[in-house]
Please model this.
Amino acid sequence: MSMHLTIAFEGFGGKPFQELADDAARTQLVRRRGSGLPFSINTRLIDAATPARLAVSHVPRRSEGSAELRVWSGAGQLAVPARFEDVLHLLAKRPATTPAQASEACGIDETEMLQFWAFGFENGLLHNPAQ
Model:
């Protein structure tokens, strides 16, 4: 009997993703499979149990002292308030997260988290997890 483990690391020419120039960063993004429908059209359908996942593969770290993150949504760059940095990383790591779970994990009020969910679905930053 034998066991084998392979670990692969994606490199960006020796630089962290957040240090890449905008054009280089865009070429490295991988859109995850999924759809924002119906939440991207009607955000009133979003509630505390609405699952989501980050729609892109990389999240930049915020620059020291910056009030926002510049995040590529696949369609363009979005300005996301810095207080949601931990939420973005949580969404990137899990296959599905609800606003209630993100609120509890990151210490952000659930009402504010629901507004972030709506922003994310409307702007292509979040999508429904693949079934």
The helical segments are 22-28, 85-93, 99-106, 110-122. The chain has one domain: 17-127. The mean pLDDT is 81. The first strand starts at residue 53 and ends at 54.
